Amino acid sequence: xxxxxxxxxxxxxxxxxxxxxxxxxxxxxxxxxxxxxxxxxxxxxxxxxxxxxxxxxxxxxxxxxxxxxxxxxxxxxxxxxxxxxxxxxxxxxxxxxxxxxxxxxxxxxxxxxxxxxxxxxxxxxxxxxxxxxxxxxxxxxxxxxxxxxxxxxxxxxxxxxxxxxxxxxxxxxxxxxxxxx
Length: 181
Description:
Pyrimidine operon attenuation protein/uracil phosphoribosyltransferase, glycosyltransferase, PRTase-like, five-stranded parallel beta sheet, three-stranded antiparallel beta sheet, glycosyltransferase activity, alpha/beta, globular
């Protein structure tokens, strides 16, 4: 198994800061915008983005956690039942600008499921997507991120491993892994 480092802790923090500046350019003070982190791993990135935005803007930012388990198109095709995660959206998204946040954009199916799940909480004015890693040329569904930390050309035999301190690792690292065939 070969591993290539895409992000270390320092580069990850710089990238999150850059993404937050871009968000502020487009959303201003976030008075009409909210953040939804996709369960399970997008919530960690959403919390980091929230903390950075709050530090810059000096005001609280609304963040929710969105589980897409029962909205996935492969939900009934699995051999074993999926375990849902917590959905925690303590606000309505009606007429709000929503920034969906996930760690890796691969086939686009999770984003499609998130769009379905999100409608439970209202009809947003606009939906944008922020991802840390965009695995280019791998889409099954025509989905494109508005804010990208890094675009990576990958093959199906590769995977992206996101290790964040919030998940129990010693330090932040994001790897591109070549799986043995």
